[in-house]
Description:
globular; 23 helices; 19 strands; 566 residues; 6-stranded parallel β-sheet; binds ligand FYN
Amino acid sequence: MTDGFHLVLDALKLNGISTIYGLPGIPITDLTRMAQAEGLRVISFRHEQNAGNAAAIAGFMNGKPGICLTVSAPGFLNGLTALANATTNCWPMILISGSSEREIVDLQQGDYEEMDQLAIAKPLCKAAFRVLHAEDIGVGIARAIRAAVSGRPGGVYLDLPARLFAQTMDAAEGKNSLIEVVDPAPRQIPAPDAIQRAVDLLKNAKKPLILLGKGAAYARAENEIRTLVEKSGIPYLPMSMAKGILPDNHDQSAAAARSYVLPEADVVLLIGARLNWLLSHGKGKTWGGKDAKSWGGQRFIQMDISPTEMDSNVRIDAPVVGDIGSCVSALLAAMGNSWGKPSAEWLGAIAERKTKNIAKMAETLAKDPSPMNFHSALNVVRDIVKANPDAMLVNEGANALDFTRSIVDMYKPRKRLDVGTWGVMGIGMGFAVAAAVESGQPVIAIEGDSAFGFSGMEVETICRYNLPVCVVIFNNNGVYRGTDKNLSGGSDVAPTVFVKDSRYEKLMEAFGGVGVYATTPAELRKGMEEAIRSRKPTLINAIIDETAGTESGRITSLNPAAALKK
Ligand code: FYN
Ligand code: ADP
């Protein structure tokens, strides 16, 4: 005989799933024990949201669904934020939660952790399923996997009521009921006429630009993309998590001339990037429009696996629907061998801006103020990442995020993991754990002091599994900075201010890791180099000038009060 517990685990293993991120409790405690006994790796967290974030980013890194396992009602809700975030970012993830007795839940008779979890999950994810009978576990997991990774990837909820786990059935029949999913994310080949439309538009462009998004990183299409960029000679801009698809020091990167190329370009090829808030919805002043809502005159080609993404913000003149590898390959084939490079005028104008900005940046980075500021600290991080291009970089915060994005170059794809489409805080330690577990590489987590607070307790998890994670907290005593005043003149500190000179490094020491208190770039460098060399869990409390941050980093304009000031 077999039972529900084993059928769930066998179905996951059959589909190549080897790690579960979760937090044990009723009714899934035994599932976590049995999973470990059956050879799955179980990474137990201190809060489900962090387990969920770990599963989500594992999905992005591997192109296979990351699994998060939680208890019912509150545990499920704690995991749900990560599931919604995974869906928003188009990352494949499956949140599996135990749930209470259906009959009691549906009659609302007050069961232990009673909640209609399936109904609550549905609007927040790509698909949601519940399995009531042991013989349906195979189908349930197959459907969850297909829904998570096929087409536009996303989060899937799988509801497993407590009673299911103890159901038994004949072992051979059980085995037969499981499904090994064949080709879970089928390639989607773009139509030849769609490719021709794109070629025609690109051929006539005077100032073409390629915009790479994290969908292109997810699609593992770096080889095809590199060929396209180099063959066409077109400058490109990487979105945050697309940094490293091509090395950031590539000649054709226009990152350092961002505010010049966006309004100037006439034809923009979007590859796995959406025209959402991060790209000012494809219009307005960022794109050279005369005011916030007007079109800048660009024509867009968009490559995306989701047909309904097209025209979501502005007109897409050449929609190319398919998986990015297939789309870029088809475009390359249609471009032929005699493709002319963009004009020297366009490339020269970009190079001029780029050189100026890079020189300005070098000047700022070379300064050594006391106390440290974001630039002098990031100058160190920049060198360390350059020397360790295989290391994973996790990054969250406001200023800590924005400065790291523009200062720290990435050299390989899918190495930069950050706050993504929602700009969500709290991903830090969950991402860091998964980055270490999935890649085996050292992880550097650059954290704002506020951002770190959301998931800080997971330093215990990092120590427990002895993961090679080096957390660097940019400590400027508060959210954005530490100098705000209470406007009432009362004795409470301002809402954005924390305890001054907090000793975050002692948190790591409490669990047996290494704590470093760094007030100079030299101390920061020594701490990071040692962490990477030793692979010991390390937390560096990097003391930054408390006046150094700006409100909301580069996105101050999104604060409603910014409109009042205008
Ligand atoms: C970039 N830049 C550089 C380089 N790279 N200069 C020199 N050298 C290098 N290598 C320049 C670039 O040209 C820009 O200057 C500037 O640095 C900033 O570049 P960035 O960060 O790419 O551009 P920008 O305008 O900030 O991008 C817009 C954005 C980004 C919305 C895509 O801000 C973003 O991803 N934001 C996420 C914010 C978020 O989620 N925050 C969390 C919530 S915080 P100019 O060209 O001179 O402009 C809650 O409060
Ligand atoms: P960024 O924030 O970096 O601009 P987005 O998350 O906005 O990136 O966009 C990613 C896009 O990539 C989504 O529209 C998604 O549908 C698309 N995408 C994800 N995987 C693939 C794939 N394999 N092939 C094509 N498009 C993909």
